[in-house]
Design a protein that fits this description.
Elements (H helix, E strand, L loop, with lengths): L7 H4 L13 H30 L1 E3 L15 H5 L6 E5 L2 E2 L17 E7 L2 E7 L4 H7 L14 E2 L4 H4 L7 E5 L2 E2 L3 H10 L6 E7 L2 E7 L8 E2 L9 E3 L3 H28 L4 H4 L3 H35 L7 H14 L5 H29 L2
Antiparallel strand pairs: 1-12, 2-3, 2-4, 4-5, 6-11, 7-8, 7-9, 9-10
Helix pairs in contact: 2-7, 2-9, 2-10, 7-9
Length: 368
């Protein structure tokens, strides 16, 4: 399909009343931005639908005894320690643990966390040198507080064949004590392929041991719900879910925009934070494996927002580039010359092709 603005033979013909080019500037702007608008509407509908059908689970900070921090993690490098209890950020008390994981908060320039450690309150500052690591390796996430109790067990999986059930708590692997979900995942992935693990399980007050042989670094269990970690479920009515979905869409959009701004300013690595189809596929699989359909639809909504933002960028060949031409036409009452359009479109295509090559190459490099 050829962009009609670049089809000289078409442009030489007399415009018909029903054609796009015969319409007023404002109507053409509506057409150009329709894709972007519907991408945002899709994200809003997804968030609203998930909230309406599933509610939201929030974890009161008072219900969280502490976080799990490994010595090789970015949290440990910053200054957090195992069993630290986070109570605030930037001097403000936090009611729900979920507030620590908002997309916008992770892109704030200066972060200072208030933490209870061994009964004393301390402040842990996050230096700007850690911003890139925060973006690429994760930071304060719900995984830090989830217990080692699977929410469900996959049928015909190694865990299912060993007799594991929903609600079981895995308290030991190969003689090492286990309390947290990410601790359990690390031990499973570290186990040699094909070698059985000795797994200690707590069920209804009784402790027993089973042997499980992981397959491809997994045993077939889903991570626990936040309710298991002391979370409370908040149900939303129709109109409440619309408001909550709108707010969620706004927060996620703000976070993504701030992330783009940081890449442009050089605060975070473009190579580490920009992904192509392979990275998207990996993220979708990981989200679905960990959170089922909720993870899948969340990733879909985030990709829809990202696509809207990318498409509205003022780059010729994208909708944002066409919008710039229309704004120019609306102000000057004349269209850009054919020469200007051709040069701009060629530059735009060059930028897009270069970007596509970069992200695909970057995805391949990350595989090794």
């Amino acid at each position: 399909m050829v962009d009609e603005s670049m089809d000289n033979e078409f442009l030489e013909q007399e415009p018909q009343p029903w054609e796009y080019r015969s319409k007023p500037v404002w109507q053409r702007m509506v057409v150009i931005t329709a894709g972007v608008i519907f991408n945002m509407i899709l994200a809003f509908v997804i968030f609203s639908g998930m909230i309406m059908t599933n509610g939201k689970v929030v974890v009161p900070v008072e219900n969280v005894d502490g976080i799990y921090v490994t010595e090789e993690s970015i949290l440990h490098e910053i200054g957090f320690r195992n069993n630290d209890k986070i109570i605030g950020v930037n001097g403000e008390n936090v009611v729900y643990f979920n507030d620590l994981v908002s997309a916008a908060a992770l892109t704030t320039e200066n972060l200072n966390y208030q933490v209870i450690r061994n009964g004393e309150e301390i402040t842990i500052p996050v230096a700007s040198s850690f911003l890139d690591s925060i973006q690429t390796r994760g930071f304060i996430t719900a995984d830090l507080i989830l217990p080692s109790s699977p929410s469900s067990v996959v049928s015909n999986s190694p865990a299912s064949e060993a007799g594991l059930q929903r609600g079981d708590k895995i308290i030991g692997v190969n003689g090492e004590e286990v309390n947290y979900w990410i601790q359990l995942v690390s031990l499973i992935q570290a186990n040699p392929e094909g070698e059985p693990m000795d797994v200690e399980v707590l069920r209804n007050g009784d402790v027993f041991e089973v042997q499980i042989t992981p397959k491809d670094g997994a045993i077939g269990i889903y991570q626990p719900d936040l309710e298991i970690a002391g979370g409370i479920r908040i149900d939303y009515g129709f109109f409440e879910s619309i408001t909550a979905g709108w707010n969620e869409t706004g927060e996620q959009t703000t976070g993504i925009l701030q992330g783009f701004a940081r890449m442009i300013k050089g605060d975070i690595s473009v190579r580490q934070n920009l992904g192509g189809p392979i990275a998207i596929a990996n993220m979708t699989k990981q989200a679905t494996d960990n959170n089922g359909w909720i993870g899948f639809w969340t990733i879909t909504a985030l990709l829809s927002i990202t696509l809207a933002i990318m498409n509205i960028l003022p780059i010729p060949a994208l909708d944002g580039g066409h919008l710039v031409f229309l704004i120019y036409e609306g102000i000057t009452r004349k269209e850009p010359t054919e020469k200007v359009r051709i040069i701009a479109q060629n530059i735009g295509f060059f930028v897009l092709v270069t970007l596509m090559i970069f992200v695909v190459f970057n995805d391949v490099i990350k595989l090794f």
